[in-house]
Amino acid sequence: MFGWQGKALRVNLTNGLVETELIATELLEDYLGGCMLAGKIAELENISAENNKLVISNGVLTGTGTPGAALCAIGAHVFPEFFCCPLWYHLGAELKFCGYDVIIIEGEAPVWSYLLVSDNEVKIVSGEEIKGLSLRETENFIRDGYSKWLGNEIRILSIGEAGEGQSALASLVNDGLLISHSGGIGSVFGEKHLKAIAIRGTGDFKLAHASKFVDIITKAIQNFRDNKDRIYEQMANICEELNLPLVEKIYYGSEKRGCLGCPIACLQQKQEEFLPHFTTLFCLTHLLGLYRLEEILVIYHLCLKKGIDPIALSVAARCVIELVKQGKVKETSLKIGDIEGLINLITDHDSLLHKGAARLAQEYNIEEYFKGLKKELNEHLGIIFGNLNQVNEKMHILDALGICPYILLGFPFEMIKETFKTVTGKELVEGSLKNRGLKWMEDYTVFR
Q1: What integer pLDDT is reported at residue 266 of this predicted model?
Q2: What are the Cα distances from residue 172, in Å, to 10, 128, 161, 232, 400?
Q3: Which of 104-108, 211-215, 272-276 is the least confident region?
Q4: pTM exceeding the 0.90 threshold for the entire prediction
Q5: Between the CA atoms of 175, 178, 180 and 186, what dihedral angle is there, to the nearest 10 degrees?
Q6: Is the link from the previous residue into 263 a cis peptide, with omega within 30 of 0?
Q7: Where would I find the beta strands (DSSP E) of 130-185?
Q8: d(Cα 43, Cα 366) in Å, to the nearest integer?
Q9: In terms of Cα–Cα distance, which of 93, 119, 90 is closest to 201?
Q10: Facing residues of 381 across strands?
Q11: What is the average pLDDT score of the chain?
């Protein structure tokens, strides 16, 4: 089987049992992307609030070095349903290099622990001392427990204070990168007393036509480099259309960072700290009315310190503001642009804000407002891809394959079809995927 390892790792935190299971070839061939595969596994495992499990799953192109295909997916039951989000950077590739396509984590650890997955070892490492550590302290704690080589190369997915307290806003942090759109999944880590997952792999997997794959990727990346000035100018114009004048100020003097195999490098880092992605900037400015650079960085750093998803925070805060307007809550007077009020709600773990937007919408009967808020966000963020031909059709296919949509800003869609064929040995049947991925501008639902 090409592109896959064909194996799943099942870890029971309650009794410490670790098992390797074979994945049916038919399942992998039918569910080609990480989120699609995680959703099917959730169905097969009967995942629910009462039977919650974490599922990390790769797509067939994850780890190949295909630009945009570094994403893996992580899913769990997060009120009110099973929720799955993409994980950027390198974690998915490391998992596949360890020999697995999927991890299923069930049960609850008796004490705070982290999970280590490497080429030759899978173990649950117990240690109450890991509880309460900041995100950076958590990463240092794990890395310091191994040789310098392994410690430096290991990839770490962790939670902060918000996850430990099971806040609906709890985000995941991947090697220092705050994962937007992951709000709530961090709380499942907290439920399970799982502080982090550390992965390091050095293995490989088979491609159907490896040399041809290398030729296609080499030419595609060279073409990108030849045209990168035009591409980056296009991205700058998109930020102008989104009315994000602070992007240039925030990113000034920063270094570009990219996920595995992706030269677009849309992540920005300064002094070894990742800066907010422009979708985060959009939410903090347009939803919360924070237009001063200092205010945005204060909230972002607070989110990073506590492990909070700034996008989930923005949507939940707008719901709280609406409840104040309607006179349905009295414990806060939060309004747009009120940074002090926002900080007070963030730091008070028992505040309404930490219930999250979905639960607030249901409890206070503002579901239509919540839906309208998501629609407004999607319409604005649709500017990013709105000028592309057949954008919804392409987004369906990219999502079904587990590929980052930003790839369309720098690479032709045909490249994905060509790399798929050289990896799997099969033609990509677009018709079978068009209605299985999301329609990005119509029903993008990660704003929780």
Answers
A1: 87
A2: 21, 20, 11, 28, 22
A3: 272-276
A4: yes
A5: 80
A6: no
A7: 155-158, 173-174, 177-178
A8: 29
A9: 119
A10: none
A11: 91
State the Cα angle at 317 between 315 and 321, rounded to 5°: 115
Q: Contact, 175 vs 200, CB < 8 A?
A: no
CATH number among 3.40.630.30, 3.10.180.10, 3.60.9.10, 3.60.140.10, domain 7-200: 3.60.9.10
From CA 315, how far away is CA 317, in angstroms rounded? 5
Partners of 72 in the β-ladder: 87
Mean pLDDT of 346-367: 96
* Average pLDDT score over residue span 314-327: 96
**8 A C-beta contact, residue 337 and residue 288:** yes
* 434 vs 394: CA distance, rounded Å: 8
Q: Please give the single-letter amino acid code of residue 310.
A: P
Q: What is the pLDDT of residues 389-409, one digit of tens each?
A: 777 788 889 989 999 988 988
Residue 433, amino acid = L
* C-alpha–C-alpha distance, residues 120 and 107, integer Å: 23
Please choose, from the candidates 307, 263, 258, the residue with its C-alpha nearest in 3D space to the C-alpha of residue 90.
Answer: 258
The residue length of the chain stands at: 448
What token pair was written down for 355? 């219930």
Residues 197 and 115: beta-carbon distance below 8 Å: yes
Identify the pLDDT of residue 381: 66
User: For residue 34, how many other CB atoms are within 10 A of its CB?
Assistant: 33
User: Taking a C-beta distance cutoff of 8 angstroms, is the pair 88, 406 a contact?
Assistant: no
Beta bridge partners of 114: 125, 196
Contact 168, 320 (CB under 8 A): no
**Structural contact between residues 46 and 389, judged by C-beta atoms closer than 8 angstroms:** no
β-pairing, 255-257 vs 102-106, is unpaired
Query: For residues 286 and 311, what is the distance between their CA atoms, to the nearest angstrom?
Result: 11
Percent of the chain whose predicted confidence (pLDDT) is above 70: 96
Whole-number Å distance between alpha carbons of 273 and 290: 21
d(CA 86, CA 90): 12
The answer to whether 235 and 153 have CB atoms below 8 angstroms apart is no
Which position has the token pair 């709890």?
Answer: 170
Mean pLDDT for the stretch of residues 290-301: 94
Tokens for 155?
């990839």
What is the rounded distance in angstroms from the CA atom of residue 201 to the CA atom of residue 258? 19
Confidence of residue 444 (pLDDT cuts 50, 70, 90): very low
